[in-house]
Write a structure and sequence with these properties.
By secondary structure, the protein is an alpha+beta fold. The protein has a single domain, classed as Hotdog Thioesterase (Thiol Ester Dehydrase, Chain A), CATH 3.10.129. Helices cover 17% and strands 33% of the residues. The strands form 2 sheets. Strands 1-4-5-6-3 form a 5-stranded antiparallel β-sheet, covered by helices on one side. A 3-stranded antiparallel β-sheet has the order 2-7-8, with no helix packed on it. A hairpin with a 5-residue loop joins strand 7 and strand 8 (125-127). It starts with a strand and ends with a helix.
């Protein structure tokens, strides 16, 4: 059973902004690339219809904390860890580490939550269980490997404000 996956990417010129730094939005593209490669390593595509399933994996949360910049031609290791495997969702953590240049170090940490949803005839999505054939191949990473706190802070005003819509 798999709980983690790594891919190494090179920062391309098109990934950078005018300052030559990787644009923040491209970290999300790199996370998605790692997730796709993870699914391929399990023998699946994230396009589950290719396996005859009328299911999809929409994102319900995505975040990234930036610790240091990446520059054109830097090589970066994107380390995917399965933080949580729920009955109808997967939560991934991503650790970005520069592997080239004089300062190899962690440069960012991200998190993505995907839900498993059934596509209805009318185009709507309905939450459903992960297919057993996929769920059986995935396990949660050991807690000591996870870099991001898995519990939401108690009494957090920011979280309460966002959730209540105020």
């Amino acid at each position: 059973m798999a709980s983690e996956f790594e891919v190494i990417r090179r920062v391309e010129f098109s990934d950078t902004d005018l300052a030559g730094i990787m644009h923040f939005s491209n970290f999300f593209r790199f996370m998605e690339t790692a997730e796709h490669a993870f699914f391929r390593s399990l023998g699946y595509s994230v396009v589950l219809s290719r396996a005859g399933l009328k299911l999809c994996l929409p994102r319900v949360h995505a975040s990234c904390d930036y610790l240091a910049p990446l520059f054109f031609e830097d090589e970066v290791r994107v380390h995917l860890l399965v933080e949580k495997k729920g009955a109808r969702s997967l939560t991934y953590q991503f650790q970005f580490s520069r592997v080239s240049g004089p300062a190899a170090k962690t440069v960012a940490r991200g998190r993505v939550v995907v839900a498993c949803a059934e596509r209805r005839e009318d185009g709507s999505l309905h939450a459903t269980s992960l297919p057993e054939s996929i769920a059986a191949q995935i396990q949660e990473a050991p807690p000591d490997k996870l870099a991001i706190e898995t519990a939401r802070p108690k009494n957090s005003r920011a979280c309460a404000t966002v959730e209540s819509g105020k």
